[in-house]
Design a protein that fits this description.
single chain, 233 residues, alpha/beta, Rossmann fold, 2 domains, two-stranded antiparallel sheet, 9 helices, 6 strands
């Protein structure tokens, strides 16, 4: 039997229908964020099933990692870009958590990610955090936690200084822009642990490489990577 709240939600949905982030069409009652059609056509990478995948290869010869995976392919104008944009610039934290839940269900079944002990989101500088109100990578981490049942640690890795936007910068300039801007503190709990470093979208890997460099100062630590998406040129 339907409750008064259920009838109220149905009425509100008729006046203010939820819209698919991907195509802009109204969502059905059982759909969240994107419609069934857009969800079916999401460009999933399946990198978590493949050692030596394209994300893994970005860090060959650059940083010591165990495994790397991205959930989706990011291309200009596609549904993934719309979702990430809504997450970062429209305050849709729920999208980041939902994406984390979805990918966490895949990662926990992968032999490359089934022994993760801590999840670390790439941190924002405090000024950027205050401006945005949240860390989009942390929302993704929260979603991963709910599916993988692995604790999120967001106090050990921190950003020492701000960096300019990476958009339209070359690979070398991106690396210079984030070189040595991360550091670790009170890291004893992570000694000898396998951690999962997570971010939203990876392009050249410069930001993640800088994080890895800082984290590798922790004795015995092993690092794997997971991102919402990878931008393929």
């Amino acid at each position: 039997m339907k409750t008064l709240m259920s009838y109220t939600n149905d009425f509100i949905g008729l006046i203010y229908p939820s819209i698919c982030v991907g195509c802009g069409n109204p969502l059905w009652k059982n759909e969240r964020f994107i419609c069934t059609f857009c969800d079916f056509h999401l460009p999933r990478t399946n990198f978590h099933q493949e050692k030596g995948n394209p994300l893994d290869q970005i860090f060959w010869g650059r940083a010591q990692i165990e495994s790397a995976a991205a959930y989706l392919f990011f291309n200009k104008g596609n549904t993934v870009q719309h979702m990430v944009h809504a997450l970062k610039y429209k305050g849709r934290k729920d999208i980041g958590i939902w994406l984390g839940k979805q990918y966490g269900s895949d990662l926990k079944l992968s032999p490359y990610f089934d022994a993760i002990e801590y999840i670390l989101p790439v941190p924002l500088h405090p000024k950027k955090f205050i401006s945005r109100g949240f860390n989009q990578s942390e929302q993704f981490a929260i979603g991963l936690n709910s599916s993988m049942n692995v604790p999120v640690e967001n106090q050990v890795l921190y950003r020492k200084k701000t960096s300019e936007t990476q958009t339209k910068k070359s690979r070398f300039v991106r690396w210079q822009n984030v070189e040595d801007i991360f550091a670790v503190k009170e890291y004893q709990k992570l000694e000898g642990k396998h951690i999962l470093l997570v971010d939203d979208v990876v392009t050249t890997g410069a930001t993640l490489e800088s994080c890895i460099t800082a984290l590798l100062r922790i004795p015995g630590v092993r690092i794997s990577l997971a991102t919402i998406a990878i931008a393929m040129s």
